[in-house]
Design goal:
The structure is a homodimer of 460-residue chains.
Chain A: E1 5-15, E2 23-33, E3 38-42, H1 49-58, E4 62-64, E5 69-73, E6 75-81, H2 96-109, H3 114-130, E7 133-139, H4 144-157, E8 160-167, H5 183-203, E9 208-214, H6 222-235, E10 238-243, H7 247-257, H8 261-267, E11 275-279, H9 285-294, E12 297-300, H10 302-308, H11 315-320, E13 324-327, H12 339-355, H13 377-392, E14 407-411, E15 413-414, E16 417-418, H14 428-438, E17 444-449, E18 452-456
Parallel strand pairs in A: 1-4, 1-5, 6-7, 7-8, 8-9, 9-10, 10-11, 11-12, 12-13
Antiparallel strand pairs in A: 1-2, 2-3, 5-14, 14-17, 15-16, 17-18
């Protein structure tokens, strides 16, 4: 085996191979091949480890994480509106329609300008990488060219990415200055996007994929939804859209089709095993069963849901129903580019879903679901790593043979963020909790994608 | 006037003098006297400004914030369990009693060791200052010596602080290894604390004050509660305790006294204009009126409440009732030492209080309060600054004459946190929103307390 090893990493690693648990790989050696794929994880108690380390050290391919540093899988952020990055944190007190009309649409329209698009997208990709997000699923603007540009930027900066051009063709729902020229043009542009982004992906070492991306039903004509569904079926491309995000959307779709959002999307051919459905707090049990059967993915966006959904998505029920799930920042419905902050919010929001919110009512009249609805920190960590990987069908998110080596190195002892806890509670679950709850961007020192170092703050 | 000016600061500043609004002082000159108190704020359009700036520059007392930097008032964190700092982020899935028994009490007991206490407290004070918290209200451990040590550390590191020794004397409620020896001893120790900390405060340039600190009713005997109430009346010292934090506490107090927590505290003499009541989500309208009349303060701890209160505190109602309020991190019931993160959570939690959480119910059956219960970002900013100042009766939190000059300087253009938004939405409210929602500790570059520079990351 060892002849294929390109690099080897020695240190201690946290990952979450199963939902709800995590593993601490203390003093492990991870072998990575020339393609950036993990060949073997050699445990501390493996009698071979010492010999291998000596050999790798001698030939100069051994990287030691070092004292006080831990390797975590890179995060998989499965819902990011790339052109909304300049709007992150803004106008979150507005209702969705005003937020879209006064902010989002005028902003996204600017991405007709490729220079502007490039400046924003480079910064966004760099910021996500700096926070350990090694894979991202992006919705671009409605422009073909800047969406292809986004894919190129991800390829060149070393982020694994799925990139769509947002489709919004309905003249009655979208402003004239910012919409697709026609349903036919939108489908044609998406076809071009698929071809171009596939080419970018083939030329990349980490993988970049196209995504069929209707914004959401209220932005789209029947014709374009049908056209995109057919295109997805024909090409096997990923699909991403918003589903069951809020009461308004829920009601509008029901009124228009006499059926709810998930069924309408399904009937247009947009719900399948490559489909990412963002938000979904309104998903019923029956709709969830349909998703589970179809293999569709729910992108949980706990931060954005607090602002625009008027509810908390029931993650525990979705998981119990067997729905595939990952976590998304939803920039800029959620303000933060950090998956760390979204992991925290996934936990916090689930506590309020459990209990309800108004203490003037008796506990059982507070509107909480009670029971086992909490998202534990380990579960949220899984959603952000292995869950996202499973959702996308990509071999990442866990340190095991056959998966790409995507890693963030967390230094737990930085001047303004010492996560060592003075040695008081030092079990692996405590160390992991400190990292997930307390890490700042500064704690993330190095980021690897597919075995390659794409960000090295130590060297700056 | 100018003969008293010790230093002057030129730049652009955000602050929130009134609840719900904020002001942007663009290109303003702030004069600070030798005691660190603001003498004058000279606006950009004041014809005197140019002459004053020239004079101050010439005599070397002018500090210019610089391009892309903004001054914000230092934060006032009104609820921090100092000895729980090593436990931040840990075991938040546990119920309160287990969390206390297995984690908090064994940890706090370690603060009998002054060397350990000093190491933890120095780090905590530094971390809070690094995040812009220039004033903090601390609960120490049950130990007199380490609590006095905490006050000394605050004095020497330049943080304005209110420090208490936590009282917990009930043998039936607290472990033998960690409790006050007796009610009489606890009151005596608190008396000593008041004397010692007042002396430390008098010798400090920024102010340090003692706090009478019963942990909460369930930890304390009637005797000690009465003794501490009498001591507070006698000395006029601040009081801090937990009030109406959770259902368990609420029920235990009602059972023990036949009245609820706020009334029980009042009847022990612990509710007055110098009293800080932490959490309070269970506070009824009637209890709130009593607090408003007494001038008591509610410390809103939105992060901790999600974990331990099973509810969201109704900030809007409290404000409408005229209750004085500030914001607290509640380390470690809340995981984060950052007031920025607590500002964000105050907003997010209020959205769920408005709407409720379970989307499977109709909107009006979701358990939300509806109506005007949102905490806007500007309101949360006020809570973290001017509100906290008002709550403590200290002249800080706003840039106006007569207040101490406590300032954090935020650089909006750091490599891993560019808050400039590419110039797209650039109104003052947008700039402030980006700072409050997106700043990382690294964006906070300098921190001033009472006119003195206590942290300068630029120089490191």
């Amino acid at each position: 085996m060892t002849q294929h090893v390109e690099r080897a990493f020695f240190g201690s690693f946290f990952h979450a191979p199963e939902y709800g648990g995590f593993e601490f790989l203390k003093d492990a050696l991870i072998e990575v091949d020339a393609c950036g794929v993990i060949g073997r994880v050699v445990a501390k108690d493996d009698p071979e480890q010492a010999r291998l380390m000596a050999a790798y050290r001698e030939c100069g391919v051994l990287t030691e994480l070092g004292e006080g540093r831990f390797g975590l899988p890179g995060f998989v952020d499965i819902h990011v509106h790339a052109p909304q990055w300049p709007q992150a944190a803004l106008a979150l007190d507005e209702p969705l329609y005003l937020w879209l009309e006064q902010r989002t649409f005028p902003l996204e329209a600017k991405f007709a300008d490729l220079d502007f698009a490039r400046a924003v997208y480079v910064d966004l990709v760099e910021q996500l990488l700096a926070r350990g997000s090694t894979t991202a699923v992006y919705l671009g603007s409605a422009h073909l060219a800047s969406s292809i540009e986004l894919a190129s930027i991800c390829a060149e900066r070393g982020q694994r990415a799925l990139v769509g051009k947002t489709v919004m063709d309905d003249p009655s729902a979208n402003p004239e200055y910012y919409r697709d020229a026609s349903a036919a043009q939108a489908v044609e542009d998406t076809r071009t996007l698929i071809r171009e982004v596939e080419a970018i992906g083939r030329a990349s070492w980490q993988g970049v994929w196209p995504v069929v991306t209707p914004r959401f039903i209220p932005s789209c004509t029947d014709e374009v939804l049908r056209g995109l569904g057919d295109l997805a079926a024909e090409t096997g491309a990923y699909v991403q859209t918003h589903c069951n995000e809020g009461q308004w959307e829920h009601d509008v779709v029901l009124e228009r089709f006499g059926k709810t959002d998930p069924y309408a999307l399904r009937d247009f051919g947009l719900v399948g095993p490559r489909s990412i459905m963002a938000h979904c707090p309104y998903l019923t049990v029956e709709e969830g069963e349909m998703f589970a059967e179809a293999g569709a993915v729910v992108a949980h966006c706990p931060m954005a849901n607090a602002y625009f959904s008027s509810a908390v998505a029931p993650v525990a029920r979705f998981r119990a129903q067997g729905i595939r799930m990952g976590l998304g920042t939803d920039i800029s419905g959620g303000y933060s580019p950090s998956m760390y902050e979204n992991i925290r919010q996934a936990v916090v929001a689930s506590r309020l879903l459990e209990t309800g919110v108004d203490a003037q009512r008796a506990p059982d009249e507070r509107g909480g679901l009670g029971g086992d609805v909490r998202v534990s920190l380990a579960q949220a960590f899984w959603l952000a790593t292995a869950g996202g990987a499973e959702a996308l069908g990509l071999p990442v998110g866990v340190f095991e043979p056959g998966r790409a080596f995507d890693m963030q190195v967390v230094d737990v002892k930085r001047r303004d963020a010492d996560l060592t806890g003075f040695g008081v509670f030092d079990a692996p679950e405590d160390r992991l909790a400190r990292i997930l709850y307390l890490a700042t961007p500064d704690n993330v020192r190095k980021v690897y994608v597919q075995g390659r170092l794409v960000r090295d703050k130590d060297a700056e």
